[in-house]
Design brief:
The protein is an alpha/beta fold. The chain has 16 helices and 9 strands. The structure holds S-adenosylmethionine.
């Protein structure tokens, strides 16, 4: 027998194309999330995706609710806009051709202006040669570039990306800026975020790029030979086919969750998926935050992180309880319902969370739903799979 529920969720997932490999993304368990929120069985008009990350949860609910997507990171706002915007008729192959022409012009101009910078991987057949060409690119961090839109070329050549890949990243980013007040801005940046993650030689995020060794040399070369434009174009075409629809009212904010909870609509459903572990998202995804802000930040450490990285209270043992407490208070004040995702590998256990909730969520029932899930390797073999129990705790206001 055909499972209509399963078909339904597959149809929905198709409409929210994969944009970013993301730690803790709910993409693979969207059916668990939608079924759980559905079982709240309430008539709210608005759903707030309080820690939206990739935006897939808000995107899945956009036909049923007015969605308010929030996350403290700017790249999350770009991804949510891409799923939630009304892009009907705005994304077309003609538009892609126009972007391509503009990008090609900027790339040619860049190469003309910096003819002495020539890093050709074609003849690299020894470890020493590869190491030398990578180090020479990394040294560009101390150069002055007298051309606009050179952030990635200066900061990241020879690290996560090669010099040539950085020239393309900077050029596509420059073209995105030309669409800043138009709806195409978000799909352009989202497609670039996708391309950057599949071309980068690091392990699925930007906490560290890999130093070249004799063992990984072949693998690193295979990433250096990837073409940013090919990945960009493939994703943009997928977006043309899938996100080009109408949307109802929505809102996207880049706020701390405490601020966000003060401005949500009363009687909302709040879907809350805070960080579970001690790793800060701002360290793993600093490079795409910089892509969006494009603000030539001060950077430090080998991973070349932005200095102004956000530190989440959910990631520290000393602040996590208070962080949950403020979340429960905010939900209660707005007379809203809450679906809270967490896992058995989290900073605090389920009993502690329920106990904290009792201080503010009076007159609420709670129900705990569980799903076994394998957290993926983020795409590479040097990160381990992890078996976890995913929870959704439903707090329903009576
Ligand atoms: C587990 S991830 C969310 C994943 C998301 N549900 C998805 O499916 O892609 C947690 C998110 O919380 C965000 N975050 C961390 N601290 C925050 C804070 N204080 N306020 C708002 N967002 C925060 C992070 O940037 C990260 O995107």
């Amino acid at each position: 027998m055909i499972d209509t529920n399963q078909l339904d969720i597959e149809e929905k997932i198709k409409k929210i194309p994969h944009l970013l490999k993301y730690m803790g993304s709910k993409r693979e368990i969207l059916d668990f999330v939608t079924d759980s929120v559905g079982s709240l069985n309430v008539q709210s008009e608005w759903l707030c995706d309080l820690f939206s990350g990739t935006g897939v949860v808000g995107g899945t609910f956009k036909d049923e609710y007015k969605v308010h997507a929030n996350d403290v990171q700017s790249y999350a706002s770009v991804l949510s806009h891409t799923y939630l915007l009304n892009l009907k008729g705005q994304l077309t192959i003609d538009c892609l051709d126009e972007i391509k022409n503009k990008v090609n012009t900027l790339v040619s101009d860049y190469y003309n202006r910096f003819q002495k910078l020539n890093f050709n991987y074609d003849d690299i057949n020894t470890f020493k040669k590869l190491q030398k060409i990578e180090k020479a690119q990394q040294a560009l961090i101390s150069e002055d570039f007298d051309i606009g839109f050179h952030l990635f070329t200066k900061y990241y050549s020879g690290t996560y990306w090669s010099y040539d890949q950085c020239v393309w990243i900077d050029s596509i980013r420059a073209v995105a800026e030309q669409y800043k007040s138009k709806p195409q801005y978000y799909p352009i940046l989202s497609s670039l975020i996708f391309a950057m993650s599949y071309v980068s030689q690091s392990t699925g995020h930007y906490a560290q790029y890999r130093d070249v060794t004799e063992d990984n040399m072949k693998d690193i070369l295979s990433y250096r030979n990837r073409d940013i434009w090919v990945y960009f174009e493939r994703k943009f075409i997928e977006l043309i086919k899938n996100v080009n629809g109408k949307s109802q009212d929505f809102r996207v904010t880049t706020l701390d969750y405490v601020d966000c909870l003060r401005i949500i609509e009363e009687d909302s459903i709040v879907y809350s998926d805070p960080p579970y572990q001690s790793v800060h998202y701002s360290r793993f995804y600093h490079a795409i935050e910089t892509l969006v802000k494009y603000d030539y930040p001060n950077i430090s450490f080998k991973g070349r992180y932005r200095d102004d990285r956000h530190q989440s209270p959910f990631c520290k043992k000393t602040t996590v309880k208070q962080a949950f407490s403020l979340m429960f208070e905010g939900v209660n004040i707005k007379k809203s319902h809450l679906a809270l995702s967490y896992s058995d590998t989290g900073m605090i256990d389920l009993d502690t969370i329920i106990n904290i909730s009792k201080n503010s969520l009076k007159g609420y029932t709670n129900d705990i739903l569980t799903k076994n899930h394998t957290h993926s390797k983020m795409g590479r073999s040097d990160e381990k799979n992890q078996e976890v129990k995913e929870y959704i705790i439903l707090f329903k206001r009576n």
